[in-house]
Amino acid sequence: GSSTEQKLEFPIPAGVYAERVISVKHYTDRLFSFRITRPRSFRFRSGEFVMIGLSNAEKPIFRAYSIASPAWDEELEFFSIKVPDGPLTQHLQKIQPGDIVLMRQKATGTLVHDALLPGKRLYMISTGTGIAPFASLVRDPETYEKFEEVILTHTCREVAELKYGEELIEATRNDPLIGELTEGRLKYFASTTREPSQHMGRITTLIENGYLFKVLGTEPFNREVDRVMICGSMAMIKDVKALVEKAGLKEGSNSEPADFVVERAFVG
Ligand code: A2P
Questions:
Q1: What is the best residue among 233, 240, 244 to mutate for testing ligand 1's pocket, by most ligand atoms within 8 Å of CB?
Q2: Torsion angle of C-alpha atoms 165, 261, 49, 53, degrees rounded to 10
Q3: What does the pLDDT look like over 29-56, one tens digit per residue?
Q4: What's the predicted TM-score (pTM) here?
Q5: How big is the chain by its Cα radius of gyration, in Å?
Q6: Which fold has domain 16-104?
Q7: What CATH number should be reported for the domain whose range is 113-264?
Q8: pLDDT tens digits for 110-156?
Q9: What is the ipTM of this complex?
Q10: Residues of the chain with CATH 2.40.30.10
Q11: Which residues does a 6 A CB cutoff place in the pocket of ligand 1?
């Protein structure tokens, strides 16, 4: 490697991959994304998460991160918050290309196709960094084999925080591999809550008052045709879950697939 590459001060723990940072992109003072090399033997299902850490201590701190890249990608992408005093992110936000990132070898999670029964329309509802697992799923051909219509919603406090999702949708629609699959079938809805933009309000409000469905040209949640994946803060998950349950949808898991699944987005 080049002379700028980080030297490891501590041994790599058992069952952990040590991968190189390929690129880092900062979106706001609270958000950044990064890409790392993918171990040859590493397998995962789009939508799953892994434990990520840094080699800056004898016993590294690991945190759950949804893999934002699709299962077919040669690299692994992550979308992260920056917390000034966050045990991991205060250091992780400073990574540079060539640095080492640690990753536990097992991927897991419930935001996967295996946990949902077949349906017609897939809603992926996210706030903040909760968009990460859906960044993987919207780029996975299986998503378009399983559903006629794929809807991604992303709600953030401010307009600048929507940038990652906007770039994702643009890149997905223009992708030589899956762009064609998404034609007329991938819908994106973004809203902000603390700064003016085209659509404003919490996703819960916009579901309850019907605004979301009106803009998308769809009907309110219907168990016969709709499947829902939810990812965001604990409070957001609880509130969105209550709304889909009110519409009669049942929560699924890997062992018992059903109509909707939830996962908490990484926080600090
Ligand atoms: P708000 O600005 O009204 O708090 P955060 O960065 O705190 O995770 O928030 C990300 C987005 O999720 C914000 O737009 C925030 O709206 C929204 N949000 C926070 N809590 C909830 C909730 N319980 N239900 C729906 N949306 C929520």
A1: 233
A2: 90
A3: 999 999 999 999 999 999 999 999 998 8
A4: 0.96
A5: 18
A6: Elongation Factor Tu (Ef-tu); domain 3 (2.40.30)
A7: 3.40.50.80
A8: 999 999 999 999 999 999 999 999 999 999 999 999 999 999 999 99
A9: 0.99
A10: 16-104
A11: 127-128, 155-157, 193-194, 202-204, 232-233, 235-236, 239
